């Protein structure tokens, strides 16, 4: 499971370069609304909502926008027609792609996702074609500096973590979704700086490609993520270090 931080670096770089804040806020608002609608408007009792609000703050989303998104969850019209859909397919080189969508127009979302796959050299597949390659996990990434990785690993596992992996100056802690929150609180209680904490989909196995194909897959992922209706995109691509260097240069 190790290697999630590579994707985090790609995501953080993209977020730093993304000037279209309106689109970012739209995606965050939808996630907050859906989370509040499913689990209630109180963050303390709704882990998904609490994470959504945390991500909104990290992206400097105004507090008024957050409040409006939570209130929208209880509306009869505005926000009530949002639905979550998962699309599956393959990118260049056969990499699996799992696309989570939150939309108020299923036909528009399907057409946009299909067009992105076609333009990016991929193929939109049938439901279930790649979902079995992924499993839900909580991932907590912490700074390794000044902390004993072995000691931190033992404490994380005692708190309910499944696995702990050192990764390029950080430590990745993997949990089941049900134990994610208790592990996160245990890490926070030790005053260990948390770089990122999220519930996500982790590939059971990864695929390796040459640099050119990897870049084509990343461009397809970016094309999908640029769609207003797309919330998250997952792939089982193993990003080569040489590609990371190209992206960061």
What is the ordering of alpha helices and beta strands? HHHHEEHEEHEEHEHEH
The total beta strand count reads 8
Largest sheet: 4 strands, antiparallel
The radius of gyration is: 18 Å
Architecture (CATH level 2) name of the largest domain: 2-Layer Sandwich
Distance, first to last CA: 26 Å
Low-confidence stretches: none
| Strand order in the sheet with the most strands | 3-1-2-8
Helix/strand class: alpha+beta
Quick one: CATH superfamily of the largest domain? YebC, transcriptional regulation domain
Residue share in β-strands: 15-25%
Roughly what percent helix? 40-55%
Estimate nothing, just give the exact number of structural domains.
Answer: 3
The name CATH uses for the topology of the largest domain is Alpha-Beta Plaits
Care to give the gist of this entry?
With 249 residues, this protein is of the alpha+beta class. The protein is built from nine helices and eight strands.
Walk me through the structure.
This protein has helices at 4-17, 21-39, 47-58, 63-72, 106-119, 149-158, 180-189, 211-225, 241-248, and strands spanning 83-90, 96-103, 123-124, 134-143, 163-167, 170-175, 194-203, 230-235. The protein has 249 residues and is α+β, with helices and mostly antiparallel strands. The protein folds into 3 domains: 4-72, Arc Repressor Mutant, subunit A, CATH 1.10.10.200; 83-131 and 206-248, Alpha-Beta Plaits (2-Layer Sandwich), CATH 3.30.70.980; 133-203, Alpha-Beta Plaits. Helix 2 (21-39) runs antiparallel to helix 3 (47-58) and helix 2 packs across helix 4. The protein is globular and about 50 Å long. The two termini are 26 Å apart.
């Amino acid at each position: 499971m190790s290697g999630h931080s590579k994707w985090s670096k790609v995501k953080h770089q993209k977020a730093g370069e993304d000037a279209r804040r309106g689109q970012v806020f739209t995606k965050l608002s939808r996630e907050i609304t859906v989370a509040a609608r499913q689990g209630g408007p109180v963050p303390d009792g709704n882990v998904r909502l609490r994470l959504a609000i945390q991500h909104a703050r990290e992206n400097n989303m105004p507090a008024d926008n957050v409040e409006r998104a939570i209130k929208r969850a209880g509306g009869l019209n505005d926000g009530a027609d949002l639905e979550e859909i998962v699309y599956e397919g393959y990118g260049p080189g056969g990499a699996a792609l799992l696309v989570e969508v939150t939309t108020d127009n299923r036909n528009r979302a399907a057409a946009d996702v299909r067009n992105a796959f076609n333009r990016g050299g991929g193929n939109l597949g049938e439901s279930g074609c790649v979902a079995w390659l992924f499993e839900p996990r909580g991932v907590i990434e912490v700074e390794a500096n000044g902390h004993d990785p072995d000691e931190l690993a033992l404490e994380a596992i005692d708190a309910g973590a499944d696995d702990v992996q050192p990764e390029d100056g950080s430590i990745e802690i993997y949990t089941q979704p049900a134990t994610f929150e208790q592990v996160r609180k245990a890490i926070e209680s030790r005053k260990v700086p948390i770089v990122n904490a999220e519930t996500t989909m982790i590939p059971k196995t990864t695929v390796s490609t040459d640099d050119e194909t990897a870049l084509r897959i990343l461009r397809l992922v970016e094309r999908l993520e640029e769609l207003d209706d797309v919330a998250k995109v997952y792939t089982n691509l193993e990003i080569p270090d040489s590609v990371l260097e190209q992206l960061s240069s």
